[in-house]
């Protein structure tokens, strides 16, 4: 089943969500509470349960939702699911599509036949294992070496994937699932001791309930209502994704390269195209700044007049039909803000953040779920041997005594492990975070800035060189190369390739000024990201100060 292009869909899986396990355990204080039943929440609940912990998962709405991101899972995320025994959730019974790699298309550059230049980037034949393979220098080993299948991605309806994870959680003997809305975190002397939540009553109205626990894991996603109590990170919005769905006959998506994600280097910012079911293909249009109104038709006009002409010719008409209101194949237009903020240590004891509540990056590269899944795997492993019951055998406790020396020692141990978690996750999380945000900036040309256009063209031509220049970046994109140093090396190699082109193709004194400006733009893009992630030598304050002195940052509004 894993090698098939698509899987079978066995009907509406939300119908299997009845019997929601809404009864609270009497020994709640000995259980781990997970707030949020999305990708991160379900996965950390299952991972903790598999390590022997009793878990209570509280989700606001267990019905199948609809969202426009989190629809493409990179091979690195699939590998994490495989290690946790959950890969069938992405591969079976949700109508998912196998993804073999990516295609980058630049409509501003044409080949000799007048077609937009295209670069196909296949995922590696096997998981990189050596330093040279991480960088993309040597050929990959034979596919399937080490007993593993060739790394591939999967695209799907995000809600169907989450429903499969929820089914797994409901059926797990150590996970209790409650449909309720967490209204606040319970706190005593600066320590989180549980949650207060509301459940709907059959006769109407709500009932307020409380659960106490020595550990609460907050995984309530992008719109987290509890993040502000636990994280000092400031949220930044880079852009907005506007999504539509193109309808088509089964497995006949009009994309240039089936089973690939497509990145279209539109002006002024990129678009994504990928199939999410046998009969549906998602289009995400990146909008910089203020978004045109959907209600008054401005967005539809923008899509037809500005975006459609830059789409691949084979896809253009289907896209126009999808964004034209009232047509037979018209699609609802949805939007999602693209946010970024780094992970940080929790402000209070007794509660930890995970998933999008902990850390976000631009969704351009589809790496968010990979980070969330690997975080769940890593954190559960670090907390595996901690005893959260802390009570006498056979005794039941419903409150947390924050003054108990054993509880204080427990919280110290949890914070120590979480510090290890934050440090160990840097290898994969910072690579994906920096890549996503930096690539969005490189692929965007706000205001038609010529330096940004040169940098974007340099990146595209760098990928077209093939060999390590393509294999290294696709390894990073796939989530299989958790190496921040490899990322920064390729990033500055792209900048130096742009320098080479300017000095070779346009040799003049003026070109030296343009070279300095290009490097300034490159440093303005990546140095703040590296500083926030604290994962490479370029994050060092002395190195940052030196780079800033040599290449002063460009105004943020122009980057």
Structure characteristics:
single chain, 559 residues, alpha/beta, five-stranded parallel beta sheet, 18 strands, globular
Structural write-up:
The chain is of the alpha/beta class and 559 residues long. The chain has 16 helices and 18 strands. Strand 14 (260-264) and strand 15 (271-277) form a beta hairpin. Helix 14 (484-505) runs antiparallel to helix 15.
Oligomer: single chain
Q: Structural class, from helix and strand content?
A: alpha/beta
Unreliable runs: 10-15, 18-22, 140-145, 391-396
Our estimate of the beta-strand percent is 15-25%
Mean pLDDT over the residues: 91
Total beta strands: 18
Radius of gyration: 24 Å
Proportion of residues in helical segments: 25-40%
Number of helical stretches of at least 4 residues: 16
Cα separation of the termini: 44 Å
Major beta sheet summary: 7 strands, mixed
* Spatial order of strands in the largest sheet: 6-5-14-15-16-13-17
Secondary-structure map:
Layout: E1 32-35, H1 39-50, E2 55-59, E3 72-73, H2 75-83, H3 88-91, E4 97-99, E5 101-110, E6 116-122, H4 131-135, E7 153-155, H5 158-171, E8 175-179, E9 181-188, E10 191-200, E11 206-212, E12 215-218, H6 227-230, E13 236-247, E14 260-264, E15 271-277, E16 280-287, H7 298-307, H8 313-323, E17 334-340, E18 351-353, H9 368-382, H10 405-424, H11 426-442, H12 450-464, H13 468-477, H14 484-505, H15 509-533, H16 541-550
Parallel strand pairs: 1-2, 1-12, 2-8, 5-14, 12-18
Antiparallel strand pairs: 3-7, 4-7, 5-6, 9-10, 10-11, 13-16, 13-17, 14-15, 15-16
Helix pairs in contact: 1-5, 1-9, 2-9, 9-10, 9-11, 11-15, 12-14, 12-15, 14-15, 15-16
